[in-house]
Amino acid sequence: MPATTQPARPMEIGVGWRHPHYVALLEQQPPLDFLEVHSENFFANGGAALAVLEAGRSHYPISLHGVGLSLGSAVGVDAWHLDQLAHLVERLHPVRVSDHACFARGSFQGATVHAADLLPLPFSSEALDVLCANVAQVQDRLKRPILVENLSAYIHWKPVEDTTTWLETDFLSELSRRTGCELLVDVNNIYVNALNAQKLGLVDQPIAACKSWLESIAPVAVGEIHLAGHSHVSDTFGDIVVDDHGSLVCEAVWDLYSHAIAHFGPVPTLVEWDTDIPCLDTLVGEATRARALAQEVIRGYKL
């Protein structure tokens, strides 16, 4: 669906605000539309970190992006974690609240354990039911819709005989339809998954596979886009592409971002950089490129 047929949405561009940029960003106040932070870093009731975040909020809207809700966990959402997030949301009134389509908590030897990682879900009907129930619980507690992000995954579940296995895009679309949540489409994650699938002989044309993935998602379901860098690791242990958020967005992902904006229309977009973090000017430069590219695509549809 072309951008001109979409409901009017702001073309907001933001960056992930990390500790090395706390002071520089407050001093320079670069032209950004929002800042995104990891929710779990601000769960303490007070302290220096929360003071910095509230200082940032006086200049920019804040988006809360979580990594610990474990929305796909069969043992449910941790009540303490959800309470802390709810308190933070009530305090900051963020423009968006998001987490991932993954699980991290599980039952092991009679106890609930946390893997401290974002683990992939089987795209089964049973897993979808669990994910929908947990997302609904979070939305009820926060009294607002959340966004759920597609994962970069390095391991996969084997299909179980006589059970339905969904395509990832159908799985996420059904999640949005049932719960009213929006999707956070991470374009880099899609590309990383396609490159690793190519290494396994499962995909011939990664770019074409990524475009097909994007086109399979209805524009109305998408509330935010993430962009980031990745790295190729090849050593005695294997050959893999890692979503490490530690470099410039690559040209292939920029091309896919253009394709995403052409399909979805204007969507708030975030540039993430979490490892080997550069100077603030470099990160803001990536955001500036995202804005220029999105505006170019949108203008093209209005000609």
From TrEMBL:
A family per Pfam: MbnB_TglH_ChrH
Domain of life: Bacteria
InterPro entries xref list: MbnB/TglH/ChrH (IPR007801)
UniProt-recorded name of the protein: DUF692 domain-containing protein
Organism: Rhodoferax aquaticus
